[in-house]
Amino acid sequence: MGFGNKRKRPGGDAKRSKKHTAPSKRQKTNVGKRVVGVDSLPWKTVDVPEMFDDAEGFYGLEEVQGVEVVRDGGTVKFVAAVPESPQESEEFEGFDDPPAESESQPEKHSPAEQGEASAPEEAADPEPKKLTKAERKAAKAQAKKSDDIKEQTTKDGKPAKAADAKPSEKKDTKATKPSPKDDPELETNVFTKVPGLADDDDDDDFDMSEWVPLNLSPEIMSCIARLKFSKPTPIQARAIPEAMSGHDVIGKAATGSGKTLAFGIPIVEKWLASASDKQEKRHPIALILSPTRELAHQITDHLKQLCSRLTNSPYICSVTGGLAVQKQQRQLEKADIVVGTPGRLWEVLSTSNALLEAFRGIGFLVVDEADRLLKDGHFKEAEEIMLALDRTAPGEEADEDEDDDDDGETPRHNRQTLVFSATFNKALQQKLAGKARYNLMGDAESLEYLLKKLNFREQRPKFIDTNPVSQMAENLKEGLIQCGDLEKDLYLYAVLLLQPTRRALVFTNSINTVRRLTSFLQTLNLPAFALHSDMEQKARLRSLERFKAGNPPPKGQQHATASSILVATDVAARGLDIPSIDLVIHYHVPRSADDYVHRSGRTARANNAGISILLCGPKEAVPTQRLISKVHATAAAAAAAASRSKLAASGVGVHTVDIDRRLVAHLRPRVSLAQKITETTIAKERGSKEDEWMRKAADELGVDYDEDELAQVGTWKGRGSGRKAREREAMAVSKGEVKQWRGQLKELLSKRVNTGVSEKYLVGVDVEALLNGARGEFLGQVEGLDI
Ligand SMILES: Nc1ncnc2c1ncn2[C@@H]1O[C@H](COP(=O)(O)OP(=O)(O)OP(=O)(O)O)[C@@H](O)[C@H]1O
Q1: What number of H helices and E strands is found in the chain?
Q2: Function, please (predicted)?
Q3: Measured at the alpha carbon of residue 132, what is the angle toward residues 127 and 138, in degrees to the nearest 5?
Q4: Which residue among 605, 607, 612 has the greatest number of ligand 1 atoms within 8 angstroms of its CB, and so is best to mutate?
Q5: Which of 119, 296, 418, 605 is placed for a possible disulfide with 263 were both Cys, Cβ 3.0 to 4.6 Å?
Q6: How far is the CA of 482 from the centre of ligand 1 (A)?
Q7: Helices 735-750, 668-701: inter-axial angle, 10-degree rounding
Q8: DSSP states of 329-357
Q9: What is the crossing angle of helices 668-701 and 721-732, to 10°?
Q10: Using CA of residue 173, residue 175, residue 176, residue 177, what is the dihedral sign?
């Protein structure tokens, strides 16, 4: 019996009470009943029945079992069937004050509640835990270093202070426990497990020696061994020790280079150190700000994976828009690590002084994708959060130096601030690196000024730049296809068809183009899914699920196509870590060099190879040229300076991909039909929506709706009139005609494309080889583009 998901209607409870009042026999005999507050009911996240289930009731929806709804005068009260225990065995004795939340809420770190794989302490296996070989090895490697750890000093000669005493000195290494199951909480389960995550036994002989210099606790070493990460990435190797020594850190590293764990590991280490000290309710230890919802969920998931073998693990939750607020409020009350988007976080935090007060005590404030988060539409809420964290609570004594915020003195708070991105504005980089005057009081528009708002604890945060020469991932190959402005659909289709990929990500600059291209590719029988900010959150998450679920094409398949394609706006450009994306296509040239870096960075992650292809029309030639020179300027200069270097030998930057033009021409009939079908379908949908809107408007105005008259009004000749005219034309196409086109397209798609040269059929083109310099037929030249 489940009822009362988060969409329960006010007033609907009394009616439901009839349906749900009778507890089962088993409940009557085995459970104690008590009155509890609605927020104290043991809500459980509704599981997703199937991946693509359309049913209501997941993504943030919750249900509760064994609850009676009883009317008490004018109020409705909830009698929860709570499991009987020595402390909780009292029979229901009538209405009383609701018991404290802790009595009826699942345990703070219970796996069922958190979706963590770790077991609650009371449910611990009575058998002593056996360590895997890797765990033993990790612990041994760490023990070898323990003397050094004890004597560890900071550069200043002071004793190391972050994670002040190592958890390893305080905790029993045998406490670590392998985690048996996946996270059942769908909202944080959007991203698949880290590939290569092995069963415990496979950890045997896993060499962790390269992690030893970081002086991590045996628990964390064991967690990392489980993830099969044999060595820290450069940003991890440099940022983790600084953060663990208590410093503020600004970290810059290429896309896909492991920045999440660079801040995640120090946070979990500190939590482990403090968790062993305290029994009472803890304050949250870290607040992590992310610019997009998907990234917030991904970070949450990544940190949960890291902690998945800890017996006692931090409660990690995400707080983002598009999902149930009440659930997030409840989660925030017991969270140790919170990952969220600024808008929703501020919405929830600003309504509760208690929450705000709790968050004032955080040990870490992390700003991921800082350059985006501190710009765009996010800054206002991010600033509110930062100000609120530093503000004295109402009724609290104001500190004497209250105006510290602005005078550059040490701020009152005691948190560390960790700021990460693959891209920072150049002038700021120079300042952070100490090459220019360092003054975080720059003009109000600049990132420099916004960083000032972060109120670093230290005058000079540690700036770590692991990719000063090239911002692009090392194994990324970049190509450019020059084509006519109206031929982009054709070349997009050609690349997707010719280049075998497991997952391809197509970026556009507009939501309308995402809609059109998704429909266009689907019409061509390609598995395309849309992602943009105008979609409902549930649909966004589902698109990502579907994108990830695509299967690789069968081996030896002649017409190799991408197994799944995501068509997205820049909402997918930052941070998303989806395994096996091997191709990124920029359908539109990105608006900025940084956008290009981040978009391209969705492939070639964690040392994997990947290809980024830019489709460039004549009108885009100039911005493209600028963009490329900006992205590759430093690398080109470095290559020129050391002309015998490998980099110079292989050439720097973007190469033109010369695809055989005749091959592409053979695809034209398919593309033309698919374009006609798509445009007609979209125009009809839009038309009927507009029609409906006009009807309603006319209704409200009390005037007659005259379709013909309104159609006349729409025949103006101004801006957008061409599109309107095309739309009208498309709307006039009969259903029969569309059906006929579909039939023709089906016929074409069922046949292999004969390239006209004797028996030669269209087969995959090795774009990678083309990028390496093997030349196909020249595709066409765009004036003025000389790359
Ligand atoms: N030490 C490591 N060894 C191997 N893989 C790692 C290591 N650390 C992290 N990874 C993996 O690398 C991938 C990229 O990590 P992450 O998402 O943190 O990158 P990022 O630097 O934040 O990228 P972006 O700039 O795009 O946000 C993830 O799949 C992660 O699991």
Answers
A1: 31, 19
A2: RNA helicase.
A3: 125
A4: 605
A5: 418
A6: 32
A7: 150
A8: HHHHHH-SEEEE-HHHHHHHHTT-HHHHH
A9: 100
A10: positive
The closest-lying atom of ligand 1 relative to the alpha carbon of residue 302 is: 31
- Which tens digit of pLDDT belongs to each residue from 750-781? 887 765 544 444 445 556 655 555 443 333 33
Q: The tokens 């593309």 sit on which residue?
A: 671
CB atoms within 10 A of CB 646: 8
CA–CA separation, 498 and 780 (whole Å): 18
C-alpha 117/C-alpha 307 separation (Å) is 9
Please name the amino acid found at residue 334.
Answer: K
SS3 category, 575: coil
CB atoms within 10 A of CB 112: 14
In the reported structure, the alpha carbon of residue 258 is separated from the centroid of ligand 1 by a whole-number distance in angstroms of: 3
CA neighbours within 13 Å on the CB side: how many for 27?
A: 17
Q: Residues 528, 567: contact at Cβ < 8 Å?
A: yes
Cβ-contact 228, 446 below 8 angstroms: no
Nearest CA to ligand 1 atom 22: 259
* ipTM for the whole predicted complex goes beyond 0.85: yes
Residues in the chain: 787
Q: What are phi and psi of 684, to 5 degrees?
A: -65, -40
- Residue 578 CA to residue 191 CA, distance in Å, equals 7
Closest Cα partner for 447 from 521, 542, 369, 547?
369
Give the predicted TM-score (pTM) of the model: 0.67
Residue nearest to atom 1 of ligand 1 (CA): 232
Q: What is the pLDDT of residues 705-757, one digit of tens each?
A: 555 555 554 444 555 556 667 777 777 788 899 999 999 999 999 887 765 54
